[in-house]
Amino acid sequence: MTTVRTLVACAVKKGWGMFQLDVNNAFLHRDLHEEVYMKVPQGLEIPNPGLVCKLNKSLYGLKQASRQWYAKLTEALSFRGYTHSHYDHSLFYRKAGPLVVFVAVYVDDVILTGTDTTEIVQLKVYLDDTFKIKDLGRLHYFLGLEILDTTEGVLISQRKFVLDLLREYDCFNYAPLSSPLDPTVKLRAKEGPPLSDPTFYRKLIGKLNFLTNTRLDIAFSVQQLNQFMQDPRAPHLQAAYHFLRYLKKDPTLGVHLSMDPDCTVQAFCDSDWASCPDSRRSVSGYLVLLGNSPISWKSKKQETVSLSSAEAEYRSLRKVVGELTWLHRLLTELTVPISSPIAVYCDSQSAIYIARNPVFHERTKHIEVDCHFVRNKLQEGLISLHHVSTSDQLADILTKALTGVKHSVILHKLAVKSSPPT
Question: Does the pLDDT at position 38 exceed 90?
Answer without folding.
Answer: no
